[in-house]
# Entry
Amino acid sequence: MKLGTLNGGRDGRLVVVSEDLAWCADAGHIAPTLQAALDDWAEARPALELLATDLAHEVIPMMRFHERNALAPLPRAYQWADGSAYVNHVQLVRQARGAEMPESFWTDPLMYQGASDEMLPPRADIPLPDEDWGCDLEAEVVVVVGDVPRGATREQALEKIVLVGLVNDVSLRNLIPAELAKGFGFLQSKPASALSPVFVTPDSLGGRWRDGKLHGALKVDLNGNPFGRADAGTDMTFDFGTLVAHLARTRNLAAGTIVGSGTVSNRGEDGGPGKPIAQGGVGYSCIAEVRTVETILDGRAETPFLRHGDTVRIWMDDDHGHPIFGVIEQKVVPA
Amino acid sequence: MKLGTLNGGRDGRLVVVSEDLAWCADAGHIAPTLQAALDDWAEARPALELLATDLAHEVIPMMRFHERNALAPLPRAYQWADGSAYVNHVQLVRQARGAEMPESFWTDPLMYQGASDEMLPPRADIPLPDEDWGCDLEAEVVVVVGDVPRGATREQALEKIVLVGLVNDVSLRNLIPAELAKGFGFLQSKPASALSPVFVTPDSLGGRWRDGKLHGALKVDLNGNPFGRADAGTDMTFDFGTLVAHLARTRNLAAGTIVGSGTVSNRGEDGGPGKPIAQGGVGYSCIAEVRTVETILDGRAETPFLRHGDTVRIWMDDDHGHPIFGVIEQKVVPA
# Structure
């Protein structure tokens, strides 16, 4: 089952979307918003599944689903916490600045508390007041959980994952060093992120959802050119069950909490930094990583961060070449 | 005007509360929840003010307001960001561990993104699975804002402050050093915080709300004994306008965002560490600070962190000795 949100109030209105993302049906009689459905998932889910079946059989009123009109499935959420599950990525970034990565990073997940009061629509512009802030994309997988009790195990946490989607976790790279140096994590350096047009239930993902990971190439194009094709199921050190359990160690998580994978990153064939797509590699899911690889290999970063007018596309195709979650497509604009 | 939230669904139901906190009136015909009122504040506020006037004149159906039945005014919020505006406190904590505090901390606010998916009721127990986590209270002032556009100035941000309240920002001190050393800020070390029984509009606070600060002694009792009486309007380096503008520098803030002052802290009369109440000082708003002062003066911390069975009370009296925001009263319990 695929769920999306169309315009209508701060939280939009919930629609069930067809497998091919061409059609949708209003779900307002079941739950006005996705958050409302998540608040009462045990009741809402079967009713939504029936609606999805009716939509697939074309026996109910349908509307065309236009991704360009979609809001984020959760236009605002009560929690957004983002992991760094692809430790390869973390190690590369550290290596580029000559810093050792603690061994514990391979066993203890790194995660930050993000801002969730405004999740951008999938086609929203990225407003950038100052190009010197070093704007970067970060292509990631996210999951949405139901209520998770404090102290949940990995296995219990896995059971609580109800939806899967994608995010462009926008970062202001040049604000990060000074902000992290203050010791309290990201704040100004993480502006609003954009979510994929639809979120999908794990069971609808078939074999792509296994071991608590989403498998398949996470595709990233930068200004129309292939930039990233890393597999989200490869080199993910911590699966989503582990990430959710990490977040829930000391407190309950409310239904609708979004947990991110961190920037997807695959090692190169030799175990070292991955190559660009033009050189036969799978490329990168953020600009910081290609800059890191450039620094390691060539002594200096060449690829610039995002500038006004640049475009970013993020999606994952199914086995037939159709985007599973729709496409995040954003343009950087002055603000 | 004072607003509270009573039981009824995940977000509770909005009530207008009398000045003396003895009575309340259902506000469901204006807005079902406080978040709904904040979403449409320009419409909701005058209607709620009328209701408050009718309540004061006892011309509408009233119910007794029992703080013990109150939920947090926002049982879940879309954002909670907490500053460290009492730089004195930050400097003391650093001094105790022999670390220099950067000069920039006096001009650039320190703030972290907190978890807001579960805000505890004012009389909720603090569940503590492990006393060795070093559970601490932190008595603070909070403000709630309407929609704040990216790049708002201090003056614009001040105009957006619609409610004022108190928080017990619970911290797990012994988890903090390792977590902050990872570089991404607080996550497991900040379990759910509790909010005061009511939030109050700034204009109802009279002279206590001025210069973007709340003035008056923030009272903290620990196990029934006076522990803190620091004035929230004294030694607050950054006012709330500055804190909100800091948070909004790179992104919009959604209505209902809660911004905290950080632990209230006053210097001693000689400009150094403040004294305990028993020695004629104003005491402390968290245990970490008294431990810091003990370390500086005596070479070692004496006061233990919270243990199972300990109780914490946090409130601020008006000029007649009545709590303005009601009383946060929590007991630490095994979990």
